[in-house]
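Progress report, Aim 2. The chain analyzed during this reporting quarter is listed below.
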Amino acid sequence: TEGLPFPQPIAYAVHEDRFGRIWGALHRGAVVYRDGPVWQRWLNDEQRWRNDEQATMGHAYALAPIGNRVLVAAANGLQTFDDSGNRLEIDPRPGDLRAVAATGKRVVVATATSVSERVDNSWQSLTWRRDERESIRGLYAIGQQVLLLTDRGLWDVTDTGIVPKLSAKDATSLAVDRQGRWWLAAERLWEVEQNQGQLKVTVRGESL
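Predicted structure tokens for the chain:
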């Protein structure tokens, strides 16, 4: 294999867009790998970064496609890029973002402790029964469904609130295969199939 070093060594997420280009969410901002080969960067200015932790581009933690755009969850808010790599806007609300998911109609973001959905031009905080020690791991858009993953399991993010879907100890990440099955990494690897809202769970392998 051939390595492809990032322009900044700390990366939190990668995403392949519909043109096959690779995007990265890095400690100092977002990047996209363009023809050349070269990284197109929106990194924080080095001098400003040393003097100001709230530098222009912020830490970038997560990426999500929506139509012909790419959304970036960052410390300074929600950044929007078009599929040519042009930065369109930065929405500073609610700020200090760690995760983002988008469907055709919805944009949901999460900080370390809260979840919000964009409604028109404002952000609406979604209510849920979160244990104060519970850690948010990520947001996932599967079809028109948005799921919240914490270290306690999966939650369904609905228009009216966040409801528990599947308990899983020490959950860390979620992936969806071509057959539509969910693979949940927790204290064990779980295979999850959804049929008309019902979940069938199969534990695969020993403890991770």
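Residues 179 and 193 are 9 Å apart (CA to CA). DSSP finds one helix and 20 strands in the chain. These observations will guide the mutagenesis work planned for the next reporting period.
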